[in-house]
Amino acid sequence: AIGSSVAHDSHNLIVAGVDDESIALVINELIKSGGGIAAYDGENLDLLPLAVGGLMSNERGEYVAAKYQELNQLAKNMGSSLKAPFMTLSFLSLLVIPELKLSDKGLFDVNKFDFVPLFV
Questions:
Q1: Taking CA 30 as the corner, what is the angle to CA 28 and CA 31, rounded to the nearest 5 degrees?
Q2: Quick check: 86 and 48 in contact, CB under 8 A?
Q3: CA 42/CA 7 separation, integer angstroms
Q4: How far apart (Å, rounded) are the C-alpha atoms in residues 59 and 7?
Q5: Is the residue at 83 inside a domain?
């Protein structure tokens, strides 16, 4: 599972994964740390804490850049084919750019400007 407290524009937690246990572990770690970017591959948990509002780090830029690259690599090792898995995840919640987006109120179709029913 991968997750982040950087989730435009609301900056709620956004997490993606294949099993509830991994997703819950990442969510709990992000809450415990006060925000950040995290990845868990079933064995290893890695975290870049973002202590300033869950959006910025108070660490040196070199450390942040290196840790971010480690997290991206961990996400790719888990099977992500995205160039920037965490950047993609952070924009998945931005409800003003197409197509389907995730919000705290549900799945949103930007083109129809309406929520998508999850059950028929």
A1: 65
A2: no
A3: 23
A4: 20
A5: yes
Is residue 49 assigned to a domain? yes
pLDDT tens string, the chain, 120 residues long: the values are 999 999 988 778 999 999 999 999 999 999 999 999 999 999 999 999 999 999 999 999 999 999 999 999 999 999 999 999 999 999 988 888 888 888 888 899 999 999 999 887
Q: Which domain holds residue 76?
A: 2-93
Q: Is residue 107 part of a domain?
A: no
pTM assigned to the model = 0.87
Check if the beta carbon of residue 110 is closer than 8 Å to that of residue 95: yes
Could you tell me if residue 101 is inside a domain? no
